[in-house]
């Protein structure tokens, strides 16, 4: 069947920006990369001129679709089907934002028809007093000439399978001529090109009000995460916006939001995946919306089984659906940065992979957590940790939903009721591996085996269990000056004689929080290996924290050297990671210690005896 461009589509878009056209099919007649700002982190944008054979209009490709251009699937003369789009008016120009595309034919030989610029045509009609009103606004449509047949390419084309796999369930297409309810656009369409935008979204998460005071004055802020079935976006309010909007926006409720400033997303602090974020202004409008059935409560784009956490990088942000197995008591810690008390609570989760993990809740979430054990809990955007074994932690942007109405929860509940309640569960607790397995004598690698098998060539690196004796610890650079802010730990830079600056937090501190950065040589009976380790490793092999040790170094160098030397000639069981890195065009394998513990010789001896008996009995 010959592909058809949708007749009169551009004109209909132009005359009614709220109209959605089913099975919209257009041709690309021009494509160009454009920039939206001087910000280096701004995503690449592609401006595409699309045509229906009679008229053409400027369109912008949503950034999540950039790969179509980068993979050369969309090019000049390509034919596209557009299941999702929005129309914005910028000054006197109309711009279509393409939110979803399907490549019908990537390589089409020529332009179809002789399309004209819809904006120029409209301006010409406006300047000509003899021009008749556009048919779209005529009360009597009988005067409108019958439409011309659809423009058809003169060859048969079939839709090319699209590699675009949206992370959201497909919504039912609107019928031709149906208007968007409330004149709102999808969150995925929010960008600097969206003029007079309005979104209908659910508040999935809201932070507590944060306050600050510095030489420039006092201030306060809060953030919320909005979501709809196209994605999620973060919004932040400062000072007056906190007073105006904080109490109005409640978690779980759906609102119509408009009139906010669109800025480039600050990726280190923004886990929504959106390239932009909203800043609330004095003119921002928020209206509670009673119609919420079509707005999801949670989006799980990075759903991960607990057993897969071995392959997930430390500090990665993931989604989890799990059974609540145990709820710990509330405890308190003191923040190094503020010296304020922070409330925390640990809970234990399991899933179908028959693994359990510790999840830490913080602040108000920890205090108000009341879900009963054996509930199904969905977490969006939690952070993977690596201290005391793999663990998870909620962060300020995380979302938690108890017994959610989603297929993953129903499947998990069925598994738990039938099998999981009596299943043998493996733990990520600190057994010395950090990768979910108990270290056994036959799992230990020697230095010779590590090098001979070329561990580290895997793209993600290779993990191995290892036992060796520390022969040397580099004392010249045993630590680094870290940011005291909770969960930051970035290196501080001196700012004058008396202050230190964190470029990530953009804050000044009177003193750093020193953290270990260990480099050492270890040895077993087959050879030596150069290892590196971070603060958790240093706190085990040295008798004090890094702040105390650096304090001694600054006052008594000889005592400092003695403490470091005394930490050698001791044997440890370790879990390490090998990964090939390139430095100055030279490839080398870096070996890092993830977990370290003194050898339990009694347990090791019993395991060895068991292994020998098993081998001899065989």
In words, what does this structure look like?
It contains 11 helices and 31 strands. With 618 residues, it is α+β, with helices and mostly antiparallel strands. Helix 9 packs across helix 10. Keywords: DNA replication, DNA-binding, Metal-binding, Nucleus, Zinc, Zinc-finger. One of its GO terms (molecular function) is DNA binding. It comes from Puccinia graminis f. sp. tritici. Residues 463-604 form the Replication factor A C-terminal domain.
Look at the structure and name the CATH superfamily of the largest domain: Nucleic acid-binding proteins
**CATH first level of the largest domain: which class?**
Mainly Beta
Q: Which architecture name of the largest domain does CATH use?
A: Beta Barrel
What percent of residues adopt helix (DSSP H or I)? Answer: 10-25%
CATH topology of the largest domain: OB fold (Dihydrolipoamide Acetyltransferase, E2P)
Strand content: 35-45%
Overall mean confidence score, pLDDT: 81
Q: For the CA atoms, what is the radius of gyration? A: 30 Å
Total separate domains: 4
Largest sheet: 8 strands, mixed
Structural class: alpha+beta
Categorize the overall geometry.
globular
Total of helices: 11
Distance between the termini: 69 Å
Low-confidence stretches: 36-41, 131-182, 430-437
């Amino acid at each position: 069947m010959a592909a058809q461009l949708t007749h009169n589509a551009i004109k209909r878009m132009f005359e009614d920006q709220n109209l959605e056209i089913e099975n919209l099919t257009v041709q690309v007649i021009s494509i160009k990369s454009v920039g939206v700002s001087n910000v280096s982190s701004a995503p690449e944008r592609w401006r595409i001129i699309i045509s229906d054979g009679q008229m053409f209009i400027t369109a912008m490709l949503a950034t999540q679709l950039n790969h179509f251009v980068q993979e050369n699937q969309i090019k000049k003369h390509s034919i596209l089907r557009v299941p999702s789009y929005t129309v914005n008016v910028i000054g006197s120009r109309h711009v279509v934002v393409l939110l979803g595309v399907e490549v019908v034919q990537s390589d089409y030989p020529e332009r179809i028809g002789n399309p004209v610029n819809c904006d120029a045509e409209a301006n010409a009609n406006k300047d000509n007093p003899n021009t008749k009103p556009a048919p779209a606004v005529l009360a009597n449509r009988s005067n409108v000439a019958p439409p011309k047949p659809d423009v058809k390419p003169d060859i048969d084309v079939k839709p090319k399978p699209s590699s675009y796999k949206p992370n959201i369930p497909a919504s039912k297409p609107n019928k031709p001529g149906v208007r968007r309810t409330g004149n709102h656009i999808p969150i995925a369409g929010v960008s600097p090109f969206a003029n007079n935008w309005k979104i209908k979204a659910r508040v999935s998460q809201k932070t507590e009000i944060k306050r600050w005071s510095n030489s420039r004055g006092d201030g306060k802020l809060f953030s919320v995460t909005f979501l709809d079935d196209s994605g999620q976006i973060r919004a932040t309010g400062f000072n007056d916006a906190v007073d105006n909007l904080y109490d109005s926006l409640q978690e779980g409720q759906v609102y119509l939001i408009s009139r906010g400033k669109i800025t480039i997303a600050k990726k280190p602090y923004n886990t929504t995946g959106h390239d932009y974020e909203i800043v609330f202004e004095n003119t921002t409008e928020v209206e509670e919306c009673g119609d919420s059935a079509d707005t999801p409560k949670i989006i799980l784009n990075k759903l991960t089984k607990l057993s897969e956490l071995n392959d997930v990088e430390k500090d990665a942000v993931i989604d989890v659906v799990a059974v609540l197995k145990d709820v710990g008591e509330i405890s308190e810690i003191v923040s190094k940065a503020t010296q304020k008390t922070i409330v925390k609570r640990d809970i234990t989760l399991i899933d179908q992979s028959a693994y359990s993990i510790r999840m830490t809740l913080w602040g108000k979430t920890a205090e108000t957590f009341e879900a009963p054990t054996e509930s199904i809990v969905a977490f969006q955007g939690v952070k993977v940790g690596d201290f005391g074994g793999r663990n998870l932690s909620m962060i300020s942007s995380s979302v938690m939903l108890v017994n959610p109405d989603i297929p993953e929860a129903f499947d998990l509940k069925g598994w738990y009721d039938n099998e999981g309640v009596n299943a043998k569960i493996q733990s990520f607790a600190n057994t010395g591996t950090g990768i979910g397995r108990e270290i056994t004598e036959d799992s230990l690698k020697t230095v010779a085996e590590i090098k001979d098998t070329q561990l580290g060539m895997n793209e993600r690196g290779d993990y191995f269990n290892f036992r060796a004796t520390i022969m040397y610890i580099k004392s010249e650079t045993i630590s680094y000056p870290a940011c005291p802010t909770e969960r930051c730990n970035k290196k501080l830079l001196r700012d004058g004689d008396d202050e230190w600056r964190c470029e990530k937090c953009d804050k000044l501190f009177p003193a750093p929080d020193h953290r270990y950065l260990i480099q050492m040589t270890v040895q077993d009976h087959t050879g030596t290996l150069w290892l590196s380790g971070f603060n958790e490793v240093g706190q085990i092999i040295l008798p004090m924290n890094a702040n105390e040790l650096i304090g001694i170094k600054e006052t008594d160098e000889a005592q400092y050297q003695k403490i470091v030397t005394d930490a050698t000639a001791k044997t440890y069981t370790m879990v390490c990671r090998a990964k090939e890195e390139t430095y100055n065009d030279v490839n080398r394998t870096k070996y890092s210690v993830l977990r370290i513990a003194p050898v339990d010789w009694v347990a090791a001896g019993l395991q060895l005896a068991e292994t020998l008996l098993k081998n001899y009995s065989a």
